[in-house]
Amino acid sequence: MDQESRDRTLFNLNNEQLVVNIPVIFYVSVCLTLGTLGNGAVVYIFYRKMRRTATNLFVAALGICDLLCCTMYMPFDIISLRFSLTFYSEFLCHLENFSFAIGTILAAGIIFCIAVERYLRVCQPFRRHISRRLAMKMVPLMFIISFLLSIPAVWVFGKRTIWTGVRGITVEVCSYAEDNIHEIYPLYYYCTLLGLNLFVFSILMVLYYRIALCVWRYKRRRMKELQKINERTREPSEEEEPNEMEERVTVPHVTMKPYKIDQLNEAFKEKEKLIKKTNIVFFIVSLVWIVSYLPHYIATLWTIVHRRGVYTKSKSYVPYELAIRSYFMSCVANPFIYGLLNIRFRRELCKIFEKIFRRESLY
Predict the structure, then answer these.
(1) Is residue 250 part of a domain?
(2) Spatial contact of 42 and 49, defined as CB atoms under 8 Å apart
(3) Structural domain contains residue 253
C-alpha cells in the first residue's frame, strides 16, 4: 500500500474513532473547563484572601496541583482522543504519564498534611502546630519526593505498536512500553501507587475518626460545665444571699454574671459548629479523592493483567475509557465542595463575580 492510500485510510479510521470517542472528549472537556476555572479561584482565594494559616496554604497547593492537571494533562488527552491513530509524540507520552504520577503522589501528600494539621489543632490544641512557614517548606519537599517516586513512570510507559484492523497498517500509540507489556513492571508500578493511596486513605480515616471523637468529647465536657454553672445560678447556698448570687456566678477559674452564660453557650456552639464544618469539608475532599481514583486503578490493573485493552467496537469501550480518566473528577470536585460548605470561600467568590460583572457593565 502506497503512502497516499495509507494516509487516506488512517484519516477515515481516525474519523470513525472520533465518533466513538465523542462522549469521552466531552467528559474531558467539561472537566478541563470547570477544573481550570474552579481551581484558579481556589488558588487565588485561599492564598490571597483567606487567613494566612497552614491549612489554607495546603488547600492552595492542592488547587495548584489540580490546576496543573487541568491545564497540562487534559489538553493532550483531548488531542490524543481526537487523533487517536495519527498523533504520537514520545516526549509528550512520557511527560503525560510522568505528570500524572507526580500529581497522584503530591495530592496524596497534601491531603495527608491537611488531615494531620486538623488533628493537631483539634485534638492537640496546646501542642505545637504546623505553622504557615513550615508548610511553605513542606510543599516543595513533597514535590521533590513526588518527583523522585514518579521516575519509574518514564520506563513503564512509552511507544507501543498496534494493528488498526486494516491489512498492512500499524500505528504507534502511547501506552505501556513494548519492552514492558509482557513484563511484571507495570503491575508492580500500579500496585505500588494503589497501595500508597489506600495506605494514606486508611491513615486519613483514623485521623478524622479521632477528630470526630475529640469534637464529641469537647461537646460533652462543655455541656457538663454549663450544667454546673446553671445549677450554681439556680441554687444559692445558705451562706450567700440570693441577691448576691444573682450578681455573679463563680466556678473554678471562672467568674461571670448570669446573663453572660447564654452568650458563652452560644459562643461555644458557634466554635463547635465551625470546627465540625471545617472537618466535614476536608473529610469529603479526602473521600472524593480516593473514590475518584479507584475506577482508574481497577481498569488499569484489569488491562495489565489481561495484557490488552477494550476493543473500540465493544459496548464497554466508552465506560472503560471514562473509568481510565475517573481521577479527573477529583480535580473538578474540590472547588464545588468548598463552594457548598465553606461560607468564606463562597463570599469571596461572589465578590469576584461582582467585580467582573461590574466591569462589564461599565463598557
Answers:
(1) no
(2) no
(3) no
Give backbone dihedrals phi and psi of 100, rounded to 5 degrees, phi first: -60, -45
| Contact indicator for 202, 111 with CB cutoff of 8 Å | no
- Res. 244 pLDDT band, cuts 50 70 90: very low
Chain position carrying cell 472537556:
29
Cβ atoms of 339 and 345 within 8 Å: the answer is: yes
Q: Model's pTM, two decimal places?
A: 0.78
Instruction: Strands of the chain (E only): list them.
Output: 157-163, 170-176, 249-251, 254-256
Q: How far is CA 264 from the centre of its chain?
A: 36
User: Does any domain span residue 343?
Assistant: yes
Cell of 56: 489554607
Containing structural domain, residue 52: 3-231+259-361
pLDDT at residue 248, as a whole number: 46
Residues 15, 19, 25, 29: what is their CA dihedral angle, to the nearest 10 degrees?
A: 90
Judge whether residue 68 has pLDDT over 50: yes
User: Is 249 inside a domain boundary?
Assistant: no
Rg value, the chain, Cα: 28
DSSP 169-197: -EEEEEEE-TTTTTSSHHHHHHHHHHHHH
- CB of 56 within 8 A of CB of 46? yes
Numbers of helices and strands, H then E, in the chain = 12, 4
